[in-house]
Amino acid sequence: MNWITGATLIRTVDEVLPDGEADRLRNAVERATEPERLDGASSYHTTFWYAKESAPGNAVEKVIDAALRPLVPASVEAGLAGTEWWLGRLAPPYSANFAFGAHHDVGRNPATGEFENPLLSSVFYLTSVDDGALTVFTGEPDLAAPDREFVFPRANMFAMFPGTRWHAVASREDVLGKDAPHPPGGADGGLRLTVTVNWWHFRPESHAAGPMRQIAGDYTGEIYPELREEPVSAGPGPARPS
């Protein structure tokens, strides 16, 4: 659980939800992101806003509020205005079909007109796969650089990293080298299902340029109604780190 800035970029927490509740959320996200339900659009092109003091409006926001928020650093909680979240669905080869490639998270602050980074970036994994590693870089994105860290998706694992950092979805070969062994833990089929959460000190401006469909909009149930069908509550977890 230790996170030393500049030395350890990624902090992870395992077994965030009780097994049955993790399974229900995974099933809901898998149904919601089926390609035929999205009319060919990518789930990465629609993000939602969940204000800090709002009541959760769906299963994802319940998990953010009850299970993930207690795990973020106290400094993030102190400055938090709300979270921006979206669903992720990738199939092999993960690094080839990840639409954004290497990127870092930014949003326009409506109070200043400037683009800024979130307080924290994070991913909650719903499936285990032995590829498609989250890779976070200290500087410019370079898979050959020694100062980068990676973690393979594990179901029910929450991964956090500084909101200022470049990151990417990379293949097993990219991070471990050619002919690398599979990481331990097995896999849940081919789908890489995630809930990505950015933790913001302001609500990002919602103007969307293509191919985005929506940036930090309110969840109404029109998109992803499946998330309203799965009540998810959080089990007891570790105290919030300082």
List the main descriptive attributes of the protein structure presented here:
242 residues; alpha+beta; Jelly Rolls; seven-stranded mixed sheet; three-stranded antiparallel sheet; 12 strands; 16% helix; globular
Describe the 3D structure.
The chain is α+β, with helices and mostly antiparallel strands. The protein has one domain: Jelly Rolls. Helices cover 16% and strands 25% of the residues. The protein has five helices and twelve strands. The protein has helices spanning 19-32, 59-68, 74-79, 94-97, 172-176; strands at residues 11-13, 46-51, 82-90, 107-108, 115-116, 120-125, 133-137, 148-151, 157-162, 167-170, 192-200, 214-218. The strands form three sheets. The protein has a seven-stranded mixed β-sheet with strand order 1-9-6-11-3-2-12, covered by helices on one side. A three-stranded antiparallel β-sheet has the order 8-7-10. Strands 4-5 form a two-stranded antiparallel sheet. The radius of gyration is 17 Å and the shape is globular. The N and C termini lie close together (10 Å).
- Kindly report the CATH topology: Jelly Rolls
Secondary-structure content class: alpha+beta
The CATH class name reads: Mainly Beta
Shape: globular
The helix/strand series, from N terminus to C terminus, equals EHEHHEHEEEEEEEHEE
Mean residue pLDDT = 85
| Number of contiguous helices | 5
β-strand percent reads 25-35%
Calculate Rg over CA atoms. 17 Å
Biggest sheet: strands side by side, in what order? 1-9-6-11-3-2-12
Largest β sheet strand count, sense and barrel closure: 7 strands, mixed
The total of beta strands comes to 12
How many domains make up the coordinates? 1
Helix content range: 10-25%
Terminal residue distance: 10 Å
Protein name: Prolyl 4-hydroxylase alpha subunit Fe(2+) 2OG dioxygenase domain-containing protein
Organism: Streptomyces albiaxialis
